[in-house]
Amino acid sequence: MVSMKDIAAACEVSVATVSKALNNQGDIGEDTKEKIKSTAKRLGYHPNFSARALKTNRTYNLGVLYKEGSGSGLTHDYFSQVLESFKNTAENSGYDITFLSNSKIRKDSMSYLEHTIYRRMDGVMVAVADYKDAEVIALLQSEVPVVTIDYLFNGRISIMSDNITGMQELLSYIYSQGHREIAYICGEESLVTTNRVSTYYRFMEEHGIRVRGEFLQKGKYRDSHAAGQITSKLLDLEQPPTCILYADDFSAIGGMNVIRDRGLRMPEDISVAGYDNILIASQLEPRLTTYQQDTVAIGCMAAEKLVSLIENPMVTPITQYTVGGELVRGRSVACIK
Amino acid sequence: MVSMKDIAAACEVSVATVSKALNNQGDIGEDTKEKIKSTAKRLGYHPNFSARALKTNRTYNLGVLYKEGSGSGLTHDYFSQVLESFKNTAENSGYDITFLSNSKIRKDSMSYLEHTIYRRMDGVMVAVADYKDAEVIALLQSEVPVVTIDYLFNGRISIMSDNITGMQELLSYIYSQGHREIAYICGEESLVTTNRVSTYYRFMEEHGIRVRGEFLQKGKYRDSHAAGQITSKLLDLEQPPTCILYADDFSAIGGMNVIRDRGLRMPEDISVAGYDNILIASQLEPRLTTYQQDTVAIGCMAAEKLVSLIENPMVTPITQYTVGGELVRGRSVACIK
DNA sequence: TAAGGTTATGAAAACGATTAAGTAAAAGGT
DNA sequence: ACCTTTTACTTAATCGTTTTCATAACCTTA
């Protein structure tokens, strides 16, 4: 592997000169600089990242902590889209990304924070379901620059998908179509769920609708089977809802199947709506009404803010950013006015 | 950041002794070793990865090169599952993974190979659609340890999903249900496509069925719209197929919608089958008949072979590994015997 | 008891870069 | 012609490890 020493020897200059020339520091004569650069290319020189990192204490490496209840890992639609966008933005700024491995798996059992320190990551993006995990908290309380996604932690930048507006827009639309008996099958406890559920209650209250206890059901995210079962229960009610709102599109699909199996028509007999606008949502029959979170903007903003925090810690405000989405009017909500 | 020097000072020994003690080298007295280890813990010592990498020339970092035609990035079902499994296995062996960024995006425009060298990655897993890309070829021809997924390159270990058996099992099943007029809408050119198409031809030949030209259609992977259009064409034929086989489940969904829109029933009027068994395949109506590739085994094996190649280059055979999958009998193929 | 063998530890070089400080030569100013 | 400044470089220290070789102390054994 050719190093600066080799270039220095070839050009008969010192290593320091080579370093400065390759880093475009002003201190070097034009001709020498050119000569050094061309021999570097000719010899096939590539800077040694480890050496540079050792000296500068900067790795240009960002950690990604992702863990989610159901263990779907990278196959999670919402997150994998956010991650893809985060990765692209980070790479544009010269940062690579590395996963913070789940300590439970790892042999020598490093914690997230230890892993971060070991690799000397410049910062970490955190997107987890379980913010009560002690290891996650340790990381959030550390000195490491962090941005969180869909979670607020004191003193940390956070990027939030606007679940309040999202839920509001969905409900407004459903309401505008004449629905008053709207059930909501929510997901596991989390900030996202809290925001959505409280918005549901507030919306109902603001529109003078009494929420019946059975209409707010606790389900699981991305579990079509569970959603199907709850849908069954809802349909069995003496006064079933006219519209069921699901925690996400996967759940909606589970519900839709149960509805279809019962010989009910959508949306004539019952309306449904999801959340996320996953790829096949547009291919469902009927086309699903849902809310598309702006995963690209979320990932992009997370990367931008994290990089800014790393490179200009003093001028980077520690705040919460909210990213709106877009209502997708499918054909799964009937107009019953 | 506490370093070995600090521990050495605290224990009144030399840095060399600390290094040996922490790495469990035999050369150290039991009591000193214990003392060093406990002070290391007490002071909150974490080894500096960059320094170690600089000295040992090992980063315990694996590159992942992934690029796919449609630009779906991490949101690609098949790949994200393989990657998840690869990542878990790699982490178990003490390796982290880093994405090889797409050079087109990167500002300073490093090639894949340059990126690999810059980060001094110990090895790379390659999963791309376009194996004609000059940068990909350069990487494959380099000195870097590599495993490829679903592609054969001279002198490289490759992990292949068994598309031949997969296609055969699907076709056998469809055939066993009485179908003879089987159309196949394949994906873009690639080794995977080649394997599947040739298997299709061979199967037909072996069963004495003449393949009609219109029955082999060229589509795109994961493009439900395109698949829908081609489905339309097939249905317009004077003698339409009794079963349409799609390149993947996404495409199948596109086709199913067109079929439904035409008022045809599945599988009574026409049968369909997909490939991949994506998460919602089981939720479709009718439940999709498809073939599930063993993404977990593929990712796991890729990581194992790559690590083995890195750690024991001499005893690691350079061969091709084939990973079988499983036929998923849904309800989308009718028995027409 | 001297020669040889263990065992535990230390000194120092090396990995490949960055960077502060120093220096010689050329250029500029009066 | 002399002093100052600028330019273009070099020297040398440093980052935190690993590793080879040296060394001192102690233990065998003939």
Query: Any idea what the CATH superfamily of the largest domain in chain A is called?
Result: Response regulator
* Helix-strand makeup class of chain A: alpha/beta
Give a quick account of the main beta sheet of chain A: strands, pairing sense, barrel closure: 6 strands, parallel
CATH hierarchy class name of the largest domain in chain A: Alpha Beta
Look at the structure and give the mean pLDDT of chain A.
92
How many beta-strand runs of chain A?
12
Report strand order across the widest sheet of chain A.
2-1-3-4-5-11
Number of continuous helical runs of chain A: 12
Pattern of helices and strands of chain A: HHHHEHEHEHEEHEHEHEHEEHEE
Quaternary: homodimer
Which descriptor suits the 3D outline of chain A?
elongated
Q: What percentage of residues of chain A falls in helices of 4 or more residues?
A: 40-55%
Poorly predicted segments of chain A: none
Largest interface, counted by CB within 8 Å of the partner chain's CB: A-B, 50 and 50 residues
Computed Rg of chain A? 26 Å
What order do the helices and strands come in, and which of them pair?
Two copies of one chain form a homodimer.
Chain A: H1 4-11, H2 15-22, H3 30-43, H4 49-56, E1 61-67, H5 77-92, E2 96-99, H6 112-118, E3 123-128, H7 134-140, E4 146-149, E5 157-161, H8 163-176, E6 182-186, H9 191-206, E7 216-218, H10 224-236, E8 243-246, H11 249-261, E9 271-273, E10 290-292, H12 295-311, E11 320-323, E12 326-328
Parallel strand pairs in A: 1-2, 1-3, 3-4, 4-5, 5-11, 6-7, 6-8, 8-9
Antiparallel strand pairs in A: 10-12
Helix pairs in contact in A: 1-2, 1-3, 2-3, 5-12, 8-9, 10-11
The first copy, chain A, binds a DNA duplex (30 and 30 nucleotides) through helix 2 and helix 4.
